[in-house]
Amino acid sequence: MKEQILKEISPNDLLTEIMKIKNDGYRLVAITCTNKNGMELTYSFDKDYELLNIRLTTDTETELPSISILYPYSFLYENEIKELFGVKITGIMPDFNDNLYKIPVKTPFGVNE
Questions:
Q1: Helical H runs in the chain?
Q2: Burial of 65 per CB tally in 10 Å (0-12, 13-18, 19+)
Q3: Residue 112: pLDDT band with limits 50, 70, 90
């Protein structure tokens, strides 16, 4: 089994890094988010049984670009993170505008106001 790789980046470098990964032939496995000293997003990719994780920490005010132009199926992960955590992800295709889930509270896993 190959070792997992974790690369931490700034939110400003997201699209540049994801473009490199896409061009290297990696497939998107998952995008996860946790509310841990800010919103910590981890983008996980696989190529030949090698798991590559790209991690960034942001807040709920900073806009992050969607990666759905590069990985179309990322729209589900991104809509979920936007709706449940309140992370501002722009350019999601398609964007469910916080209606992916029928939930009684806004951003239940986001910052407590």
A1: 14-23, 74-85
A2: middle
A3: low
Token pair belonging to 108: 């239940």
Residues 6+ apart with CB under 8 A from 97: none
CA-CA-CA-CA torsion sign (82, 89, 55, 86)? negative
Report residue 102 as tokens: 């029928």
Of 32, 37, 28, 85, nearest to 57 by C-alpha is 37
Q: Which of 102, 104, 82, 101 is nearest to 33 (CA)?
A: 82
Question: How many helices and strands, by DSSP H and E, does the chain display?
Answer: 2, 6
Query: d(Cα 84, Cα 100) in Å, to the nearest integer?
Result: 10
- Please tell me the distance from the alpha carbon of residue 42 to that of residue 21, in angstroms, as a whole number: 14
Residue type, 52: L
pTM over 0.85: yes
Over residues 64-83, the pLDDT tens digits come to: 999 999 999 999 999 999 99
